[in-house]
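pinned: reference chain
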Amino acid sequence: MKKPTYIFILPTDKLGGAEQVLKMLLERCIDESVIIKIYFLTSKSSGDWGYLENKEQVDVSYGRTSKIGVGLFMLFFRFKTKNIDYVFTSHTFITGYIGFLRRLNLIKIKYFVARESTTVFSRFTGLKLFFYSLFYWVGYNSVDLLICQTNDMKEKLIKALPKIDRITKIKVIPNPFGFSRINEKNNKKMSLNNFIVSAGRLIDEKGFDILILAFKDLLNVNPELSLIILGEGEKKVELEELVSKQNLTGKVCFAGHVKDVYTYFRNAKMCVVSSRVEGFPNVLLQMMSQNEKVVSTLCAGDIDKIEGLFICPPDDVRSLFSTMKKCLLSDSDNRNRFDKELRGRSIDNYLKTINVFLNEEN
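pinned: its C-alpha cells
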C-alpha cells in the first residue's frame, strides 16, 4: 500500500514561531507511516533541522539561494511528486502561491492546510500590505482548511477581507505546545540567578524598547536585577544604543540566538512578553512551562483568557512596569493553572482537530 505524502513548506530553516509550529506538527507525523518532504525556499543557514535529514521517511530540500523570492518562483519545479496527500504552510505568500498553482491545476493536492502566522492587516501597511492582500485573493480559495491562532485573528481577517470566509473554511485552533521538547531538556542551573528574561526577534513588533524602559523603572524596586533578551534581529544596534542612553550598560544583556531557552526561562525571576502585536506568541507557552511568574502584553487575542498570567496593554511603558512590579512581588502559585492550559494544547489534540475540520461538512 502506498504511503501518504506530507509536504511542509517554509521560507527558511530559522526557527521563528511559525516554523516551530510546523516543526512540531511534522515531528508528530513522523510517528505515522507516512512520507514527509520538507521544502525550504532558501539555502541552509542553521542546524535546527539537521537531525531530520538522517530519517529514512523524511526528505529535506533547501533552495539554491538566500533569496525568498527566487525560492518561491522555483518552488513549482520542486514538486516532483504529482499526487500529494497533505500540504502544510504557515506563511501568507507561500500559501497564496501554492493555492494559485493548485487553482490552475498545476499541482495535485488532496488536502491543503494553511495556518495564519500573524495578523497581517494589523501589522503591515502600504505596498507590502497590498502584495499580501494579492496573495489572499489569488490563492486562498484553494485552501481546504485555514487555521487562525485566535478568535481575534479570525475576526480581523474577515473584517479586512469580508468574503474570504465564503471561499475558504476558516477555523480557530490554538497553537500547540510540545511537551516532548521539555522532557528532552535537563534541569541545568545558571550562575546568574537574579534576572528577568524575554525572547524573540529584535524587531519593532516585539516591543523590546518598551521593555527596556520599563525595566529601568523596575530597578527602583530591585536594583540587583538584570534583564536578558534572547534573540537576534535588525534592531539590535538601536536597542543597544537605547540601553547605553538609559545608562543600563551591564544591566541589560543581549544573549543572541540560544538553542536552550528553557534553562533561561526556568531560572529567571520572571518571564516577560512585551510585544506590540503578535498572531499568538509561542514563546509565552514556553515561558509558562518553566516559570510561574509570567507577564504578557495583550498583543494577541485570547491571552486574557489564560489564567495566572499578569497582563497589561501593549506599547505602554508605565503599564508594563507596574505589571512587572506586581508580578515580581507576588507569591504566585500558577503551576497547576499553566499545566492545565498547556495540556489542552498538545500536538496530538492539534492534529486531531485538523482532521476533524477537514472531514466535516461545510
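why pinned: The longest helix spans residues 17-30. The chain has a mean pLDDT of 92.
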